[in-house]
C-alpha cells in the first residue's frame, strides 16, 4: 500500500502473510508425508475413516489453546512464563483431556463405521487413534505453549500467527504420529 509516495506494509499484514505462507508450505509437507503413508493406511481397514477427523482434531484443539493463550497474554491475565498460574494450568489440562476424549471417540466411531460399512471389525483403530493422539499431544502441547510465549515475547501478536502455525504443525505431527503407530502395529 502507498501512503504519500512511501511504501508502507502493515505489521499485521506481514505477520498474517508469513504465517499463512508457512501454513501452506506445511500443508504441502504433511500431504507428502501422507502420500508416503498411503500404502500403509490400506493395511489397516477403516484407517481412512479415522484420518480426516484425526487430522482436524489437533489443529482445532491446539489452535484454540493458542488463541486462548494469546488473548490471556494480550489482556495481561497471564505472563509468558511457566510459573504457577491456575488459568494456564486449566487451559493445558483441558487440552489434554480434549485430545484423549476426542481420540477415543474418533477411534470408536471409526471402528463402528468400519463395521457397518465394510462388515470388518477391528479394535486396532481405537488403539491407533489413542496412541497416535498421545504421541502428538506430547509433542504439540509444549510446542504450542512455548511458541505462543515466544511469539508474544518477541513483539508479535499470537492471534495473527498461531492459528495457521498450530494447524500446520498439528497436521505434520499427526501424520507422523500415525505413521509411527502404524509401523509399530504392522
Quick structural summary:
With 186 residues, the protein is an all-alpha fold.
Class derived from helix and strand content: mainly alpha
Radius of gyration computed on alpha carbons: 19 Å
CATH architecture descriptor text: Orthogonal Bundle
The tally of helices reads 5
| Order of helical and strand elements | EEHHHHH
For the record, the CATH class is: Mainly Alpha
Helix fraction, binned, reads over 70%
How far is it from the N-terminal to the C-terminal residue, by CA?
A: 55 Å
Instruction: Give me the CATH superfamily.
Output: SLC41 divalent cation transporters, integral membrane domain
Shape: globular
Write out the strand line-up for the largest beta sheet, numbering strands in chain order: 1-2
Number of strands: 2
Describe the 3D structure:
This protein is an all-alpha fold. It has one domain (2-185): SLC41 divalent cation transporters, integral membrane domain (Tetracycline Repressor, domain 2, Orthogonal Bundle), CATH 1.10.357.20. The protein has 5 helices and 2 strands, in the order E-E-H-H-H-H-H. It has helices spanning 11-41, 47-74, 86-118, 124-153, 158-185; strands spanning 2-3, 6-7. It has a two-stranded antiparallel sheet with strand order 1-2. Strand 1 (2-3) and strand 2 form a beta hairpin. The longest helix is centred in the middle third of the chain and has 33 residues, at 86-118. The N and C termini lie far apart (55 Å). The model has no long low-confidence stretch (mean pLDDT 86).
Amino acid at each position: 500500500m502507498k501512503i504519500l509516495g512511501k511504501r508502507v506494509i502493515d505489521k499485521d499484514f506481514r505477520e498474517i502473510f508469513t504465517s499463512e505462507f508457512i501454513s501452506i508450505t506445511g500443508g504441502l509437507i504433511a500431504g507428502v508425508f501422507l502420500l508416503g503413508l498411503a500404502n500403509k493406511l490400506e493395511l489397516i481397514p477403516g484407517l481412512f475413516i479415522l484420518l480426516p477427523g484425526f487430522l482436524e482434531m489437533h489443529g482445532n484443539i491446539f489452535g484454540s489453546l493458542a488463541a486462548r493463550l494469546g488473548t490471556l497474554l494480550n489482556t495481561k491475565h497471564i505472563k509468558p512464563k511457566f510459573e504457577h498460574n491456575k488459568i494456564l494450568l486449566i487451559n493445558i489440562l483441558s487440552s489434554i483431556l480434549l485430545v484423549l476424549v476426542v481420540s477415543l471417540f474418533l477411534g470408536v466411531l471409526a471402528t463402528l463405521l468400519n463395521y457397518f460399512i465394510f462388515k470388518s471389525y477391528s479394535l486396532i483403530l481405537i488403539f491407533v487413534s489413542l496412541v497416535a493422539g498421545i504421541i502428538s499431544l506430547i509433542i504439540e502441547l509444549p510446542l504450542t505453549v512455548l511458541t505462543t510465549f515466544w511469539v508474544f515475547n518477541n513483539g508479535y501478536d499470537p492471534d495473527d500467527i498461531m492459528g495457521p502455525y498450530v494447524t500446520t504443525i498439528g497436521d505434520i505431527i499427526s501424520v507422523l504420529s500415525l505413521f509411527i503407530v502404524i509401523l509399530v502395529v504392522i
